[in-house]
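Please review this one:
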Amino acid sequence: MLESLSKGHCENITSRDVIVQEIKEKLEEKNYLLILDDVWNEERREWEDLRHCLLGISNTNGSRVLVTTRIQNVASVMGVLPQHVHCLKQLTDEDCWSVIKHRVFGNSRIPSELKELETIGRENAKKCKGLPLVASVIGGILCNNHKVDDWREVWGLIEEANGVLPVLQLSFSRLPKPALKQCFVFCSIFPKDFVMEKEMLIQLWMAHGFLQPSSERHMEMEDIGDKYFNDLLSYSLFQDAETDSYGSVITCKMHDLIHDLAQSVSESQTLILGNGGHGNITANIRHLNHISDKGLTAAEIGDAMQKLHTLFSKTDVFHNMPANFKKVRVLSLCGAKIDKLPALLRKLKHLRYLDVSDTRITELPRFITKLYQLQTLRFMNCFLIERPLKGIGNLVNLRHIYFNDEKHMPAGVGTLTCLQTLQLFVVGQQQGRGIEELGGLSQLRGELEITNLKMVRNREEAMRAKLLERTAIQELALKFDQKPDWHSVLTGFGREDSEERRKHDEDVLEGLQPHPNLKSLRISNYCGEKCPSWMLKDPGNLGESTYLKNLVSLGLFFFPQLKSIPSLSLSNLVQLTLCGLEELDSVPPLLLSNGAKVQIRRCKSLRSIADSYLEELMIYECSELVSIEFGPLAMMYLKKIMIELCNKLESLSMFSGMGESSSTSTCLKEFSKSCSDSSESVSSLHGFSSLQKIDIWNCGQLKSIGESLSKSACLKKLSIRGCHSLELLPSLVGLSSLQKINIISCQKLKSIGESLSTSTCLKRLFVSSCQSLELIPSLVGLSSLQTIDISTSGKLKSIGESLSTNKCLKELDINSCDSLELFPSLDGLSSLQRIVVSFCGKLKGIGTSLSSSTCLKELFISCCDSLESVPSVDGLSSLHFLGIDHCSGLVSIPSLDGLSSLRNLNIQNCDKLTSLPGGLSSCTALKVLSIENCHDLISIQEDSKDLCSLVKLEITRCGKLRNILGVGEILGFPLTRLKVLHFGGFSVEQEELEEYPTQLEELGLVGWEKLRRLPHQIQRLTALRKLRIEDFDGLEALPEWLGSLSSLRSLVISNCKSLKHMEAIRCLSNLNSLEIFESPELRERCAIRRGSEWNNISHIPNICMPSGQIIELTPVFEVEYNDAQESQLTKWKRPFFCCKG
């Protein structure tokens, strides 16, 4: 979802909470439709996790999830009501014919002379059995074939087929070449729904010899692979193709039924080993994908070992294996938990494809250069490798090499005359590292980044790279320095050295002229004063045509001395980025593609931007900019403008061509501006009648915002942020389309307009960090209002006059309003779904009853020390979550009777609470019960036999609690579904528990007087994946039996001050994470490589301890620049290790 909203990859975001928050922010309270197509998952727990995430994104009505599946049980597992299940009918024969016809003829009509084909085609459509996939496959078979005899032959074959799979098999049998069939069958090695990268897939086919060039004409194997890929796509055997910014397909998937077809015709030569078990590894297996997290033994592989051609594995599959893998052609250890490559790889003489990316290996052994058949070598994100591979020139057949760390740049690549992929080249002074190495690589294609160009001596040497002859390179990045220190560059060497550097860079860049086929060009850290001649016009043409006419993207980053850029006329250019051009005075007229986006950042001398036809213009930190000279015609194209920290650009009158006559003609929809510190007003906004979004922020001296907002009848969103001097908002009367108001960090703002009554479309009011705000205007009549969110407004004493008329109100969040004493009446709010009140120290009550809020799903109250009572929730059958935290004055909680949908009850840090609320037994849907730090809580006595749905139970640090029953019936009921138990920290009178539910997956224990050592019963918890132990002062050594918990993945140790010995951990081979807190002696004994316990824990991938002595062997990477645009283009450089805590 996040990647779809961001329109890009998000590999570096792994936390589920962060992902949920990012999606929530991007949706901006909008409703969404999520489509999950062709679902097979029947795991109830995973559906619950997804549901929890979706509720975190938005718990309001309006959003929808549409799931398609061929399995009836999926709907049952999801808990879908019968009336919401729609059993789709099969397509009609006419519909199937439409699919076939479109695949064959596109949108064209069938020629009159081919009408007989329609008759045959309609008969074929009847055999599709109403399935669109079958219709699409049949259309793929007949595509580009208009011969009647061939259509009749296909009709006859379909007549003989019985069932869906035989019809699909027909498409396989009709593939024109045996090699194409081999390519298709090989794809069964990937799991269902796997995203196949086109580039990687072609290299795998090539490694198996499926792409042999035809004797009739010479074609590179990669070109044959590209054709085969497109053929399989056209035959509908591949689907869900994704393209890059140039329109080329880069990934695809196989439909599950097509995957079944590939497996059925593979003749049992392909096997995927999953976590569910190893299955049968027969002697016929040639291609093995080991995706299980368990290792393999020689006995399990058996005779297949000597015949394997392909091996994918995420584990150290070669551990304790004999060297019998001699026929392996493809080996992928991508993401495997290994720190070195096994020596037996040297015997893989037939190896053509090797991938060790995303591993923790520390070196590439020299024997790799003896694998003379190797065609593809990948070691991306191997940041623990310190030295480059030596002797790479021996790999005479190498065609593709992938790495993204500059210190991995091998010497002597110029001898690899077959090389097509080299994404990074680092120029050096040593032999074999000069830029002339590129001159011999005539086959290079795709993407190329050349860094450290300061090492190139002159233009003549630069020309030896022969970039002008590289017709297949699409993306080129040229970087002169790694991390330039411009102060040193411009002043540290003196005027003479600076002049020499200028001439050097201009000379070298002139010699790096690329081929005009180039689609993307990025130049960084260039000290010249002018652009190279090849960026101006076609050097061989005296006319006006531009040389780089195929460019789609152009980026110029950190040019400290460039004074001007050419007036670009690039009809295909969609993205232009200018960043750090410190001497650039003006941007000339630009003739770019329709829908072009221009971003200008940190151009400190820029004063003007000439008239240009753009769709988006973003300007950041251009302190001297005074004018944007867009005329009326240019404004017809501009849809979005963002201005940030442009000190002298004070008002929208900057658009010199804007006048009264054009006030209704502009298409501008989004305006965002960050004013300078000296600007006290944002003057007229008139002339932008189509504006839908205004964002004014970080204007520290801004005192007023004109009075023309009322004319913005189309305005939907108004955001004012960081305007600390702003005291008054202009009148909002007349903003009938306004849907969202965000006011943040306006410290002197005392009120929000006089009235919002005319903003009848207003859905969201968000106010935060407005410390002087005393009054929220009347909210009466705002019939569309759905969300009120007010926080950190210290002087606010009341909120509106009444909320009872806001029948659509769904969310009410009040946070950190220290002076708030009175809460508005909540009577009549029948749509209210969420109430959150926190850090309101003077608030004594939140109404008396919520009886009319029958849709309420979440009620959370925290840090309200004066709160004396909680409103009655009796009978709220929709309530899912009830949380009360840090309410020190609260003595009791009202009855929970009738809360039949309550799933999470969380009571924490309520010091005066002596007992749980009544009615707990009626909460039959309760899954999470958490009671923590309630020091006066004495007993849990309620008869709760109906609470059989509990999945998570936490009862900790209740110092007076003393009468808990034996485990298995902790609250007087069986806990057959309990997966997570956190327990302990009780009265000295409480005895140790006798038993623990055997199905537990997570256990947290807090020691107390009667529990000073780990209970031996834990060894029976064979499903346990996470164990946390706290406050066990008497524990000196982990018990030996702990090593038998083979399922354990995570161990957390906190405040165990006597713990010294960890021998038991050595046996926990699957342990992935160890965290140690507040145990200083143990931390010292576990110190990396020098601690006495280090050998017992060194096999664990992620080890976390405070005070900096931590190893987290999953590296976090830094990029070269923080700039958003550049960081997307800059390769990862080097790892640093994260210190948690």
